[in-house]
Design brief:
Elements: H1 2-21, H2 36-40, H3 53-58, E1 77-82, H4 91-96, E2 101-108, E3 112-113, H5 117-126, E4 130-136, H6 144-156, E5 168-170, H7 185-203, E6 208-211, H8 213-220, E7 232-235, E8 253-257, E9 263-266, H9 270-278
Parallel strand pairs: 1-2, 2-4, 4-5, 5-6, 6-7, 7-8
Antiparallel strand pairs: 1-9, 2-3, 8-9
Helix pairs in contact: 6-7
Length: 279
């Protein structure tokens, strides 16, 4: 009996330590696991996903790292997006290279916060870069309202300081299972709407939507429900952003490469970046 009691206490202590030691990631017992494609893109556990991960696996398109200039705009502003896998970012160097805006992954689902968020989000701000935060959606994990609230509570808020962009909803390929997270096209559209509505209720801003044309067509039926309210951030690793999904009249951001870091163009000069920040 005494041995059994000691064993139970030791097990309880071990569980308590695990819970305290790894708050940034979900518990290892979570049902969702990275797919083979996600593992090739560096996603080893729940929480590791990042904007454009599927492109990192496939390396499709013109992923050379060259600064491809948007064909549709004479004025464009260079930006980057980062997540935990980049670690500490040298923001002064990024500024010298021409980067003037950046988004940092803050959260995923309702179970993960980026352990490098403070260095990446605050560091870009201090370097004079207009910054924003993004949320990697996992509609299979919890409700949209729950995830929007989690995002806002963990770095995804907004302030009218001229240097903070509205939050971004990263809704794309599922690194943990079925492409559309087990939802029908109508259910996915409703999930996105609920997230955006809750985000606006909490911050007063319409969130940016990051996606790909293929995913949007497949998982929402190419819905046009958000093309008049939410800025589009299109992901396409090529020499042009291509045909836009959801009949958006234009893109606001375009992620065009992941080499040597995720590079993006803002469809306008720096004054337009700041205008979006100011709301």
């Amino acid at each position: 009996m005494k041995k059994s009691l000691l064993t139970s206490c030791a097990a309880l202590t071990a569980l308590t330590f695990v819970a305290a030691a790894g708050p940034a990631h979900a518990a290892a017992s979570h049902a969702q696991r990275p797919t083979a494609a996600a593992k090739r893109a560096g996603i080893q556990r729940l929480g590791d996903a990042y904007a454009g991960w599927e492109h990192h696996d496939s390396k499709t398109g013109a992923d050379s790292g060259a600064l491809v200039r948007p064909l549709s705009s004479a004025n464009a502003t260079l930006g980057i997006d980062v997540a935990a896998y980049q670690g500490n970012v040298d923001w002064s160097s990024q500024y010298r290279s021409g980067v003037r805006w950046a988004y940092t992954k803050a959260t995923e689902g309702n179970y993960y916060t980026n352990p490098y968020f403070a260095q990446q989000y605050d560091g870009s701000y201090r370097a004079g870069i207009v910054r924003g935060a993004y949320h990697f959606a996992n509609p299979a994990g919890s409700s949209a309202v729950n995830q929007a609230a989690y995002f806002v509570a963990h770095g995804g808020g907004w302030s009218k300081d001229g240097k903070t962009l509205p939050g971004m909803l990263d809704i794309e390929y599922n690194p943990y299972g079925a492409t559309c997270y087990g939802l029908s096209q109508s259910a996915m559209t409703s999930w996105i709407r609920s997230f955006l509505t809750e985000y606006r209720r909490k911050t007063g801003r319409d969130a940016v939507i990051y996606t790909t044309a293929d995913w949007w067509q497949t998982c929402t039926g190419n819905t046009t429900a958000f093309n008049q309210t939410n800025p589009l951030w299109i992901a396409r690793y090529s020499s042009s952003p291509g045909t836009l999904p959801g009949r958006w009249p234009y893109y606001t951001m375009w992620q065009y490469t992941s080499s040597p870091i995720d590079h993006d163009w803002f469809n306008g000069d720096l004054s337009r970046v700041k205008a979006l920040a100011n709301g």
